[in-house]
Amino acid sequence: MALLTVRNLHARVAGKDILKGIDLEVAPGEVHAIMGPNGSGKSTLASVLAGRDGYEVTQGEVLFDGKPLLELSPEARAAAGVFLAFQYPVEIPGVGNIHFLRTALNAQRRAKGLEELDAMDFLQLAKEKSKLVQLDAAFMNRSVNEGFSGGEKKRNEIFQMAVLEPRLAILDETDSGLDIDALRTVAGGVNALRSPERGMVLITHYQRLLDYIVPDKVHVIAAGRIVRSGGRELALELEEKGYGWLGLDGGKKATAEARR
Amino acid sequence: MSTETLQELTRRPYAAGFVTQVESDTFPPGLDEDVIRRLSAKKGEPEFLLDWRLKAFRHWKTMREPTWQAVTYAPIDYQAISYYSAPKQKPVKASLDEVDPEILRTYEKLGIPLHEQKLLQNVAVDAVFDSVSVATTFKDKLAKAGVIFCSFSEAVREHPELVKKYLGTVVPYSDNYFAALNSAVFSDGSFVYIPKGVRCPMELSTYFRINAAETGQFERTLIVAEEGSYVSYLEGCTAPQRDTNQLHAAVVELVALDNATIKYSTVQNWYPGDAEGRGGIYNFVTKRGIAHRAAKISWTQVETGSAITWKYPSVILKGDDSVGEFYSVALTNHMQQADTGTKMVHIGKNSRSTIVSKGISAGRGQNTYRGLVKVLKSAENARNYTQCDSLLLGDKCGAHTVPYIEVKNASAQVEHEASTSKIGEDQLFYCRQRGISQEDAVSMIVNGFCRQVFKELPMEFAVEAQKLLGVSLEGSVG
């Protein structure tokens, strides 16, 4: 059975229709890449799946593990195993990174009827997982994302994912703003977390990320719809020909951004 | 920010709002010289103190209630207040067994056990119930170190020379309207004396409880730290839930002699009134310390209660190399109003001060930081750093910052930073996406905002302070 099923999903933000009929099926163990020009609805899809306020679903349904997802609160979705790596991870001054993550993990464990991890066990777990993305101990005691560099923020997202062990990870432009070394580190972490039980959705503007995380499937989204699906080669073709190739008006924008 | 969570969070009942049934000896309402004479006689005070009270009273009558603060309230009828209320029992207890069990139970309910076998670890407590001190714990252990820690009344009886020497030297009776009123009618409070070179072996704390209706509480605290000594002092406050306003006008004086350190922490949780602004304590307090050469005075306050808070714990940096600190969290919710801050008066050379103020406004609460940094001509190389941050929860509350800076010496360095923020949708969503409930997320963010101040509190109080802010304790301390 599919882990995630999206059927004919329509959604609007501030009265404007953004998603206009998305269909997507992700099976456990699969990595899907969703590509598309700016404003095509990639990040909106991520926000709708995670349950961010202000996004109104007007049609369609989403099943997670065969159960309706959209009626759950964001925290309930998290506990069910939906993880979103944020494009812009948020700073929370004064709240220790490690305290934040332990609170999150224990909230999820409580929701699942599991015992909470005590401070010692948690620290052990965190230490182990932090190696995946090469975060050192000093980093754990800093406030959540406060004063982190762009690369550190993205590594922190992957670190959180490693600790929370979601069933479905949605990575929203995790590659944006990363230099090549940071990209390698982050991709290494993501690859280490690929598993037969876990599904992943990589949202990205560029195919560059897909050199490091090789997807099983690639979808191109434009104007709120998936306009083309294929294998890895689709991404390469897109890279070569640009979004304009698919007759998408976002082609110019994408090129302009690439130059920046 | 979802309004439901805020409403939920801010609608928590006031846990300390119960009333204790004890027989009290209460003066009828009203204030004149005769009331003051009776009060003084009741306490068996020496002549000098009665004279001082009367002088204060006469001066008070010439004064006007201040109106410059950013708070509003109906006029107070000072003749409608009772100026003395005490549980019927001997004022000084030889042992705790003689204290009315109802009162002991009251403190226990508030989490302040006074029974010997249940005493708080390493914290000596002076319990002030309405107008009088009912018990002081760990007296023997403190006496061995030469530390005097007792009720103010007892200090007047046992150590009149010390009281006479220091009373009113930091906050003179003529200082301001409420200080003058307090000087005239104060009924009890705490007294601390740390001898030269002694590091007080435990935390000292006073727990103030207003119980009786229609009374005011006017306590006075005096702490004297001799040369090279150290003391950490905590105070906590609660009151029953009533629909009339009650006046609390206290005075705290700190004297830190050369090289001494006084750390003074407050967790103020007087009854704040209900959601419509009925009832609650008017907390009009004057707190000031004087720091002599290389002495340090540090104020930390967490103000969550009271209908109105009006207080400016201050430091007169008299000595060269003296240090003053002020760390504050003030939370106003519903109809609460707070106008609070500090004064740092630099007189000595190389004197330094730090001010960190965190204001949180929710509901229709109004929160004002008002602070003065004054550098006199003599204060060569004085330094001040001020940081004022405000956090708004919801859109009906207000935060205001009113800093005054007066510098008369060009070598001084004065820095002021201020920020105002709202709890962001983004922060909340980030927490919730990781599985943290909305309510816990709000607590966590607020707690993070206050962390700089909480870490200045002694452990026991840090815990209480976090509880007061509706914060889950898990892992947040230490």
UniProtKB/TrEMBL annotation, chain A:
<dbReference type="InterPro" id="IPR003439">
    <property type="entry name" value="ABC_transporter-like_ATP-bd"/>
</dbReference>
<comment type="similarity">
    <text>Belongs to the ABC transporter superfamily. Ycf16 family.</text>
</comment>
<protein>
    <submittedName>
        <fullName>Fe-S cluster assembly ATPase SufC</fullName>
    </submittedName>
</protein>
<dbReference type="InterPro" id="IPR027417">
    <property type="entry name" value="P-loop_NTPase"/>
</dbReference>
<dbReference type="InterPro" id="IPR003593">
    <property type="entry name" value="AAA+_ATPase"/>
</dbReference>
<feature type="domain" description="ABC transporter">
    <location>
        <begin position="4"/>
        <end position="248"/>
    </location>
</feature>
<keyword id="KW-0547">Nucleotide-binding</keyword>
<keyword id="KW-0067">ATP-binding</keyword>
<dbReference type="Pfam" id="PF00005">
    <property type="entry name" value="ABC_tran"/>
</dbReference>
<dbReference type="GO" id="GO:0005524">
    <property type="term" value="F:ATP binding"/>
</dbReference>
<dbReference type="GO" id="GO:0016887">
    <property type="term" value="F:ATP hydrolysis activity"/>
</dbReference>
<dbReference type="InterPro" id="IPR010230">
    <property type="entry name" value="FeS-cluster_ATPase_SufC"/>
</dbReference>
From TrEMBL, chain B:
<comment type="similarity">
    <text>Belongs to the iron-sulfur cluster assembly SufBD family.</text>
</comment>
<protein>
    <submittedName>
        <fullName>Fe-S cluster assembly protein SufB</fullName>
    </submittedName>
</protein>
<dbReference type="Pfam" id="PF19295">
    <property type="entry name" value="SufBD_N"/>
</dbReference>
<dbReference type="InterPro" id="IPR010231">
    <property type="entry name" value="SUF_FeS_clus_asmbl_SufB"/>
</dbReference>
<feature type="domain" description="SUF system FeS cluster assembly SufBD core">
    <location>
        <begin position="208"/>
        <end position="449"/>
    </location>
</feature>
<dbReference type="InterPro" id="IPR000825">
    <property type="entry name" value="SUF_FeS_clus_asmbl_SufBD_core"/>
</dbReference>
<dbReference type="GO" id="GO:0016226">
    <property type="term" value="P:iron-sulfur cluster assembly"/>
</dbReference>
<dbReference type="InterPro" id="IPR037284">
    <property type="entry name" value="SUF_FeS_clus_asmbl_SufBD_sf"/>
</dbReference>
<dbReference type="InterPro" id="IPR055346">
    <property type="entry name" value="Fe-S_cluster_assembly_SufBD"/>
</dbReference>
<dbReference type="Pfam" id="PF01458">
    <property type="entry name" value="SUFBD_core"/>
</dbReference>
<dbReference type="InterPro" id="IPR045595">
    <property type="entry name" value="SufBD_N"/>
</dbReference>
<feature type="domain" description="SUF system FeS cluster assembly SufBD N-terminal">
    <location>
        <begin position="140"/>
        <end position="200"/>
    </location>
</feature>
